[in-house]
Amino acid sequence: MLEINHISKKYVKGKETYTALDNVSLKIESGDFIAVVGPSGSGKSTLLHTVGGLIRPDSGQVLFRGKSVYKMDSHEVNKYRRKNVGFVFQQFHLIPYLTVYENIKLTEIELENENGSIEATLEKCALLPLKNKYPSELSVGEKQRTAFVRAIISNPEILLADEPTGNLDPGNSQILMSLIKEFRENGGTVLLVSHEAETTNYANRIVTLRAGKLL
Ligand SMILES: Nc1ncnc2c1ncn2[C@@H]1O[C@H](COP(=O)(O)OP(=O)(O)OP(=O)(O)O)[C@@H](O)[C@H]1O
């Protein structure tokens, strides 16, 4: 479904150059749950963002169903991000002045016969009674579940999760991981960056990055 072919990415800051990805190739099949592990600064987040159409690599290609994401025009790449990819980040990135419901509604794309799908998904994630609350009024677990619902509400094919349990206690981590597992059981594909062994246990494949290289 997704092919990452020989991608490299360097960041240049003043006179310093940081090699984030060095000739990385990875094939992601539909239904995969791939965990990306590696030391801090090894390029994990850069890889995830590159797959999500957010960071253009210096060289190499990301192919989604055979189509090169970074050769798409801006309209197409926006569509790829909105329709095919869902993101969950360690820091939630909820909009502070929108309620739970509004944060989710903002990213939902119009789907046929989907009236009520936000409510149903909120219910499943134990968030329905909180739908009119603002992020500042939520616990961290509730914030991350809101971010998860936002990520999956438009039925993306792939969920990109960057340390999604990094700020959660063990109980909330387990709840979130069960939801991610269910997303996969319903046909989704997952690419997840994590340091935590309990999280990588859900994966069918674990890949390691070190200094931008896939081992
Ligand atoms: N915007 C940027 N400008 C300059 N250097 C950057 C930038 N973003 C990342 N880097 C550098 O690129 C390398 C890879 O960063 P990246 O965030 O992808 O690593 P990571 O494995 O996700 O790290 P962590 O586990 O600490 O989140 C690091 O050396 C980092 O300092």
UniProtKB/TrEMBL annotation:
One of its GO terms (molecular function) is ATP binding. Gene3D superfamilies: P-loop containing nucleotide triphosphate hydrolases. InterPro entries: AAA+_ATPase, ABC_transporter-like_ATP-bd, ABC_transpr_LolD-like, MacB-like_ATP-bd, P-loop_NTPase. The keyword Transport applies. Residues 2-215 form the ABC transporter domain. One of its GO terms (cellular component) is plasma membrane. It holds the Pfam family ABC_tran. Keywords: ATP-binding, Nucleotide-binding, Transport. The keyword Kinase does not apply. This is ATP-binding cassette domain-containing protein. It comes from Maribellus comscasis.
